[in-house]
Amino acid sequence: MIPDIGRTLTKLQVHHVQTMPLDMRAAFAGDPDRFERYSARLDDLLLDYSKCPADTETMHLLQQLAIDADLEQKRDAMFSGAHINATEDRAVLHTALRNRSDAPVRDGGKDVMPQIRAVLDAMGAFATGLSDGTIAGATGKRITDVVNIGIGGSDLGPAMTCQALSPYCDGPAVHFVSNIDGAHIADALAKLDPETTLVIVASKTFTTIETMTNAATARKWIAEAMGEEAVGQHFAAVSTALDKVAAFGIGQERVFGFWDFVGGRYSIWSAIGLPLMIAIGPKRFGEFLEGAHNLDNHFRTAPVLENLPMLLGLIGFFHRAVCNWGSRAVIPYDQRLARLPAYLQQLDMESNGKSVAVDGKALEGPSGPLVWGEPGTNSQHAFFQLLHQGSDIIPVEFIIAAQGHEPDLQHQHDLLVANCLAQSEALMRGRTLEEAQAQMQANGADVSLAPHRVFAGNRPSLTIAYKKLTPYALGRLIALYEHRVFVEAQLFGINAFDQWGVELGKELATALLPVVEGKEDAEGHDSSTAGLVAFIQEEQKG
Ligand SMILES: O=P(O)(O)OC[C@H]1O[C@H](O)[C@H](O)[C@@H](O)[C@@H]1O
């Protein structure tokens, strides 16, 4: 945490210890307006945090925390193009990618909007050409399938959003290959016809080993089917490293750029979103950007305690740094948001999983929490046991749409909603021993087993609800989470926009490859690593 918030944080901690455990059941019973007072809205987007252990004083102190941390000034610095990514000396302007206003956005004095609009237009023309068949494969056949090869931020965003918006997908089918494991690309290509397939190589740096290796495999697949000269018509690329793309042999007109002011995990709004645009069309992709832009405007202007990302960040920080809860579960009650937890894992944990502060000193206090989850209702039948009765308290974030996309299956949507709301109610209410005993007695059951049916309750959750998962609503939801991560980073004192922690593993993998291949011996490696290499080499024989 940053020193500036020390005094208020201490007050929060003292207040928390004095009032804890804040009895939420009693709080609801004693305040019929608790939902009204501890929820906030932006149009049809609702954040209900009334089932978190906060009272008036908590919220007052969290508001003070925002003031002490200069949150509004830091937010404004991000939007204005200040180089807040200090370790890489870069601006952080993913918000410019979805700027739908006429206002310029400057990085180092230069307005970045013209180049952003030019790439968006080029993407739109390409996506439209694929859809209407004017951009075809080398043998003249229409492109029916698109394979995006990328990893991390160059995969999770398009993969998550394409699945989320499948009711809006009317373009070519999109597929995603990310893992270095050859099984991934082998399984993907096995289903496809090279004559009707376009491959997008998506990599900010165009050096990532997984992406470059899979791209080479795909290139061979295309060339073997139709000859080397067909490659150009079956590839496109997305990158900030245009020189490296040219070396791969992809024509200029099929290269879509973005810029260093866009972090990988914040890049879905850039050309990295090309698979999404191809799938849903440029118009709906525009609505997706519009939703995020709307949330940006809200983040920039709403007072702290009415500001959804500020509230989400302050509550998240409170849970982590004051309540000392080390993880949070994100449970979308939407099968199409199945990849949202994975997307948020990168967004949140790659941003705030750091023990070094912005100034290079050791972080005082915790870093960001572990983020995990699975869709409801499946997760209820898997790990909700632990959420309800385990010894650790894990705040849950429920996500639910009022409307589904299947009007004929309204009953199933009602069941989905009922389950979502019931879980947060159960976590909060719990069930006392007396209640369990009374219920068992009424049912003629063995009352001695009542302790197994006790739920401590008072377990925190918040709910994010909205009308329907449209492109607009999804853009808004992602932007909400992006800014939440930003808010928490300011309070932790972390630079949310670098990711040095992923480098060591990459370096060691490069050093180990010749050992695995038997070209070097394992000298200098620890006995575990050497022993594992020996085992695998032995088992590879025969
Ligand atoms: O887009 P690329 O340059 O290929 O990078 C892909 C991913 O790999 C890196 O290791 C980072 O951890 C991610 O932040 C990044 O999104």
CA-atom Rg in angstroms: 25 Å
Helix % is 40-55%
Question: Which structural category do the helix and sheet elements fall into?
Answer: alpha/beta
The termini sit apart by 55 Å
The helix count comes to 22
* Ligands, ions, cofactors: 6-O-phosphono-alpha-D-glucopyranose
Tell me which oligomeric state these chains represent: single chain
Biggest sheet features: 6 strands, mixed
Strand elements, count: 13
The proportion of residues in beta strands is 5-15%
Shape: globular
Q: Spans with pLDDT under 50 lasting ≥5 residues?
A: none
Q: Indicate the mean pLDDT.
A: 96
Largest beta sheet: what is the strand line-up? 1-2-13-12-10-11
Verbal overview:
Its EC number is 5.3.1.9. Keywords: Cytoplasm, Gluconeogenesis, Glycolysis, Isomerase. The chain is 48% helix and 11% strand. It has helices at residues 6-19, 24-30, 34-37, 56-68, 71-79, 94-97, 113-132, 156-164, 182-190, 209-226, 231-234, 242-248, 274-280, 282-301, 308-322, 340-352, 384-389, 410-429, 433-442, 471-492, 503-516, 527-540; strands at residues 39-42, 45-48, 106-107, 110-111, 145-149, 173-177, 197-202, 235-239, 255-257, 327-332, 370-372, 396-403, 461-468. The strands form 3 sheets. The protein has a 6-stranded mixed beta sheet, sandwiched between helices. The chain starts with 5 loop residues before the first helix and ends with a helix. The model has no long low-confidence stretch (mean pLDDT 96). Residues 151-154, 203-205, 208, 211, 264-265, 350, 499, 502 line the site of 6-O-phosphono-alpha-D-glucopyranose.
